Amino acid sequence: MNISVRELNAWFGRTQALYDISMEIPANQVTAIIGPSGCGKSTFVRCLNRMHETLPGTRVEGYVEVGSIEIYGNGTSPVEVRRRVGMVFQKPNPFPAMSIYDNVAAGLKLNGSYSRRELDQVVEHALRMAALWDEVKDQLKKQSGASLSGGQQQRLCIARALAVQPEVLLMDEPASALDPISTAKVEELLFQLRSQYTIVIVTHNMQQAARVADSTGFFLLGKLIEYDKTERIFTTPADKRTEDYVTGRFG
Amino acid sequence: MRRWTAGTKVRIADAIFRHAMGACALSVLAVVALILIELVWQSQLSLHAFGWKFFSRQAWDPVAGDFGALPFIYGTLLSSLLALAIAVPLALGLAVYITEMCSPRFRGALAFTSDLLAAIPSVIYGLWAMFVMVPLVRRYVEPWLAATLGWTGLFEGPPYGIGMLAAGIILSIMVLPIISSITREVLVAVPRHQREAALALGATRWEMIRIGVLRNARAGIVGAIILGLGRALGETMAVTMVIGNRPAIAKSLFAPGYTMASVIANEFSEATGDLYLSALVEIGLALLLLTLVVNALARLLVWSVTRGMPVSSNA
Amino acid sequence: MLKSQPTRNVAWTRVLADRAATGAAWLAALLVISPLIAIFGYLVVRGASAVNWAFLTHAPRPVGEAGGGIGNAIVGSALILGISSLLGVPLGIGAGVYLAEYGRGRLATLVRFTADVLNGVPSIVMGIAVYALVVLQQKHFSAFAGGIALGIMMIPTIARTTEEMLLMVPRPVREAALGLGVSEWRTVLSVSLRTALPGVITGVMLAFARIAGEAAPLLFTAFGNQFWNLNVNQPTAALPLQIYNYALSPYDEWHQQAWAGALVLIVLIVGTVCLVRLIAGRGVMKGTA
């Protein structure tokens, strides 16, 4: 599923946060969104699964197409959009009152009734894809989601997002709250997931973007300054502002 | 001759002040100790006469000097549980509405309304219940219940209006504010990222509330309910005015009953004879211990959810 | 707060559940407001006509005679509440000061816990305890005993509010005073307490409003009185008690007076609560609910 964004604008109350963003995000690739704090990268990504509008006083205008569905269209329900466009947050947020198993199955149970066996299969598959299965397979139903380490919690959140079989996976600085080893594991995951999902990852860590992303978009003050193959962004950026940022002159 | 320097004077003044404040704090301990001691002391006669069996006997005959607290324990528990059965769904619904669904404009007004209900004195609830609610219950509610649910055996007998059902209803109105208020605090304490986690999975608003908020706040909600129970157990005036004041255990909710607080309120000043008085004090002691345990349990539960966040909750 | 999400293309069972839950919550809110309106409404309808100057300034007449009022009950309540404030306010504030300024460690935790316990004591049990402690010794009912019972009930609320308000005074304020050489006790009184004073006062007012409506602890302490009484050592009338007695009596005129008295009482209490809310804002109300 590729994502087509055209003239996307977003506001927090009266303050505009995104100005006429237009991008084509190709399917089955990892696209990184980089930029200094406050540049709108999180806001942008949250517009892709209609989470931005859940905050009071916010507004979104523009055109976002995922696959062939216009997600802000009149006939489209944000509930359905969010199932198809999954999200992993900066701070791992597993449900503490549920076991690991129930965490992964949570999204599934909302979307229909499945037999015990079907659930077992999906949970195992999701946990394997998130590279967490071996570590938790004996404690699935006994341990709470919050009793894992930070890195494991984040992988649990990834598994939870994958279990509902989205087409796109959005990741808002997924490793920024994790230690280097967990970060490495999450990045490894991205290489494997890439073939099945379209991934958009927000990161303030440029080395991370250089490592994992096929394409990178640079945001500054709510505008998309440059968007190109990662290699070009980091070696021969077209815009001076991009060059200043990636060489560390600010941000 | 010793010189009292300014330093010494100040230190003495500081010490006096500190001890004075400390004395105030200790007075709290002293008061509770005194209450417990007095209650135990005054129940001695009854304790000696009846022992533990006091709480399992059904007698209540002041003339013969025969006393047993079972009907009152039954009445207290039944009226309180009935009150909870009515109040809990309403209180939770109100709390969810205020914190998750209501537009910000009305939130303050609704919350204030709920707090206002908590400020109404018990006698006024009783007055209203006696003259307005009971006739309604007698004329409409009880016949309807007897017609539809009479087969359960819970709604039999003449619809007096006055009785266990009326007591349960007025109690439910009285405990509703505290259950709702604490529940609201507990729901607000659930962090935003839990709500977002549920939404990001493709949940409807109710599903988000169910798995992202209510599920997390479970322990605190139970605590709020138990705090409501604690309040209901000790309620006196309103219940006394509508429960019928008959020390009997009956299956039907239409029948009159008697609670621990009510029998004390009604008969304490008229109690002739030391044993009579002692029996009533013993009932008071039992009521005190019961509410103490219930309240302590509730506080533990609420604290476990709102740990770290200051929650003022007077039972 | 989240608006209900549009749900086209979502399974109808889920949509139904969402709508039903919203409806149920809304209904609950409605059902909660209704008794409040009903109670206030009836108080006004049934009571307002009997409230007049004579009602407020006369003592009850014997049954059958017209007229009479709750004047003695109002004065009696004032007397009893005055005594309880003399007891409860200093002790409550003092305990709160101790907990905020000096209380660390086990003793403070014990005091806090015990204050909670004291708060949970049913009011009727408080009446028994004060009966045993005071009335039995004095061999008569009195406003004094009633004042003690109600005063004790004020202590936990006032202590907690005082502690909370004092803890909100920022450290730099305290340290500024201490740094200037002001003694500790003066700092607490003139700096911390003065800064926290508005909050403390609202706490006191709320505790006051709460006990002003209590009847159970007065049943066998102040006991009530059909006549004027200013002697603290004698049984004294109180407004909630009078309402209770009138309501339970078999006479219609007295029922009418019960409604009128209840209207007066509720206006005073709710008036105090609203006043406090207006001055102090939301936070302080939580202390009483």
Order of helices and strands of chain A: EEEHEEHEHHHHEHEHEEHH
Helix-residue proportion of chain C? over 70%
Helix/strand class of chain A: alpha/beta
The average pLDDT score of chain A comes to 90
| Greatest contact between two chains | B-C, 107 and 109 residues
Query: What is the residue-mean pLDDT of chain C, rounded to a whole number?
Result: 87
Structure explained in plain terms:
- The complex is a heterotrimer of chains A (251), B (315) and C (289).
- By secondary structure, chain A is an alpha/beta fold.
- Chain A has a single domain, classed as 3-Layer(aba) Sandwich (Rossmann fold), CATH 3.40.50.
- Helix content of chain A is 37%, strand content 25%.
- In chain A, the strands form two sheets. A six-stranded mixed β-sheet of chain A has the order 6-7-8-3-9-10, sandwiched between helices.
- Chain A is globular and about 55 Å long.
- The model of chain A has no long low-confidence stretch (mean pLDDT 90).
- In chain B, helix 3 packs across helix 5 (164-188).
- Chain B is built from ten helices and two strands.
- The N and C termini of chain B lie far apart (57 Å).
- Chain C contains ten helices and no strands.
- In chain C, helix 3 crosses helix 9 (239-248), helix 8 packs antiparallel against helix 10 and helix 9 runs antiparallel to helix 10 (252-280).
- Chain C has a domain at 74-239: MetI-like fold (Orthogonal Bundle).
- Chain C is an all-alpha fold and 289 residues long.
- Chains in contact: A-B, A-C, B-C.
- At the B-C interface, helix 1, helix 2, helix 3, helix 4 and helix 5 of B face helix 1, helix 3, helix 4, helix 5 and helix 6 of C.
Quick structural overview:
The complex is a heterotrimer of chains A (251), B (315) and C (289). By secondary structure, chain A is α/β, with parallel strands linked by helices. Chain A is built from ten helices and ten strands.
SSE blueprint:
The complex is a heterotrimer of chains A (251), B (315) and C (289).
Chain A: E1 3-12, E2 15-25, E3 30-34, H1 41-48, E4 58-66, E5 69-70, H2 78-84, E6 85-88, H3 100-110, H4 116-129, H5 133-136, H6 150-163, E7 168-172, H7 180-193, E8 198-202, H8 206-212, E9 215-220, E10 223-229, H9 230-235, H10 240-246
Parallel strand pairs in A: 3-8, 3-9, 6-7, 7-8
Antiparallel strand pairs in A: 1-2, 1-4, 4-5, 9-10
Chain B: H1 6-50, E1 60-61, E2 66-67, H2 70-101, H3 104-119, H4 122-149, H5 164-188, H6 192-200, H7 205-234, H8 237-242, H9 260-267, H10 274-305
Antiparallel strand pairs in B: 1-2
Helix pairs in contact in B: 1-10, 2-5, 2-7, 2-9, 3-5, 5-7, 6-7, 7-10, 9-10
Chain C: H1 12-47, H2 53-57, H3 71-102, H4 106-120, H5 123-138, H6 143-167, H7 171-179, H8 184-212, H9 239-248, H10 252-280
Helix pairs in contact in C: 1-10, 3-6, 3-8, 3-9, 4-6, 5-6, 6-8, 7-8, 8-10, 9-10
